[in-house]
Specification:
Layout (H helix, E strand, L loop, with lengths): L19 E4 L4 E4 L5 E6 L10 H19 L3 E8 L4 H9 L4 H18 L7 E4 L4 H13 L3 E3 L7 E3 L15 H10 L16 E5 L14 E3 L1 H13 L5 E5 L3 H16 L8 E4 L2 E3 L2 E2 L10 H6 L4 H9 L7 E2 L2 H19 L7 H12 L4 H13 L7 H13 L4
Parallel strand pairs: 3-4, 3-10, 4-5, 10-11, 12-14
Antiparallel strand pairs: 1-2, 6-7, 7-8, 8-9, 12-13
Helix pairs in contact: 4-6, 6-7, 9-10, 10-12, 11-12, 11-13
The structure holds zinc ion.
The site of zinc ion has 4 residues, from helix 7.
């Protein structure tokens, strides 16, 4: 699938600082230790609605990961999917009397525009399920052939993976059984489905149903489950033991747990990812921003209202990526004012030396992406005066390369 244009990323003098990130599986901030090519998979959107600020905050956090790794001299192989075959998409298309393919393509196009405006570095592979059904079905077939997946005996053709067959099942989230059951029921799972071996067994393949899209496959006609889609798309492009598996905190369970389960069982290798990294939720008026609450703020709507996308980016980065935080018009105003101050300061002929600022921004971002700390350091530089003629340009490049803020 077509990705989006790559923003310019200036090269900075000196060397970066190796990135440490919080890992949900081990509950600690640990160094990332990529090889020459850092490998990252970030779960993409289900394209039935426009990109809201919760999505944007997530993709901006992983864009910082990408930028810090590049500053450390790594090539970054970043892969993202589009869940363009899924129930929420079909339901929305049905409700609006629309073709689900057209709806998915339209919202994916809008997402590309939003990511471009926010200066998010695009994935090397941007892969829709529609174009990956064959490879996903191959993974399902593999899981059946090695005896860890089974077909229900109710004639539906539905295939599930047996979680009891995996010794390490549960390591990614660390949740207890009842927490898993609650989230499984809440987030698309079917713990009550008769005929399953274990309540938590995830769907790998949904047999063909009247009125639903279907594809032929070695495991019968039907369509892929959600978690196995990411397992196949990630492993086939990045291999096992990737450096970061990323997404919003609502993907900790079941989505990332199950994707890891599928990938590890098929490869007979552990782990799927060295870091599982999750971003906090963005709230509005004291509630999580979500379509079920009908309180979404869309990036495209802000753009349409003439809001500078760099102010949106700066407002979202002014909170720490792991914290649940509120979107307020005051935060947006503050970001717009800050952006104006930064623009003024970097347009001057001289400023205070920026060598230390570059070091501080690198140091703050390397420490579990402390973007608020990095922003404070820039504010301090902006508030001072100096006579270094090279400083404004260096600050300009630092903000562009590391924070993705083009002034
Ligand atoms: Zn995913």
């Amino acid at each position: 699938m077509q990705s989006w244009p790559h923003p310019d990323v200036p090269l900075l003098p000196g060397t970066g600082i190796p990135l440490r990130l919080y890992d949900s599986a081990t509950h600690e901030v640990r160094p990332t230790e990529p090889g020459p090519v850092a490998r990252m998979y970030v779960c993409g959107i289900t394209p039935y609605d426009a990109t809201h600020l919760g999505h944007a905050a997530t993709y901006l956090a992983f864009d910082l990961v990408n930028r810090v790794w590049r500053d450390n001299g790594h090539e970054v192989m970043f892969v993202q999917n589009v869940t363009d075959v899924d129930d929420p998409l079909f339901e929305r298309a049905d409700r609006d009397g629309e073709d689900w393919i057209v709806l998915g393509m339209r919202e994916t196009a809008l997402f590309r525009e939003d990511m471009t405006a926010l200066r998010v570095i695009p994935p090397a592979h941007y892969v829709g399920v529609v174009e990956a059904v064959e490879e996903i079905a191959e993974l399902v077939e593999k899981l059946v052939s090695i005896g860890v997946a089974y077909r229900l005996e109710d004639g539906t053709g539905d295939v599930y993976q047996d979680v009891a067959a995996a010794a390490r099942f549960g390591y990614e989230s660390g949740y207890d059984h009842s927490t898993m059951l609650n989230f499984f029921a809440e987030r698309g799972g079917d713990p009550e489905r008769p005929g399953k071996r274990n309540a938590l067994d995830p769907l790998l393949w949904r047999g063909a149903r009247e009125g639903e899209p279907r594809w032929p496959s070695p495991v019968g006609p039907g369509r892929p489950g959600w978690h196995v889609e990411c397992a196949a798309i990630a492993v086939n492009r990045l291999g096992m033991g990737i450096d970061v598996q990323g997404g919003g905190s609502d993907l900790v369970f079941p989505h990332h747990e199950m994707s890891a389960l599928h990938a590890e069982a098929a490869a007979d290798q552990w782990p799927f990812a060295k870091h599982y990294v999750h971003t906090g939720m963005i709230g509005l008026d004291g509630e999580k921003m979500s379509k079920s609450r009908g309180n979404l703020v869309f990036v495209s709507r802000l753009r349409g209202d003439g809001v500078d996308p760099m102010a949106v980016r700066l407002a979202l980065l002014s909170g720490h990526y792991r914290s649940d935080r509120a979107w307020t018009s005051a935060a947006l105003d503050e970001a717009q004012e800050r952006l104006a101050r930064w623009r003024d300061a970097t347009a001057r002929a001289t400023g205070p030396s920026a060598v230390e600022l570059l070091a501080t921004v690198r140091e703050r971002l390397a420490d579990d992406l402390d973007s608020p700390g990095a922003i404070r350091a820039v504010d301090d530089w902006v508030a001072r005066e100096g006579s270094d003629p090279t400083a404004p340009a260096l600050v300009h490049s630092t903000l562009d390369a590391l924070l993705g803020i083009a002034l």
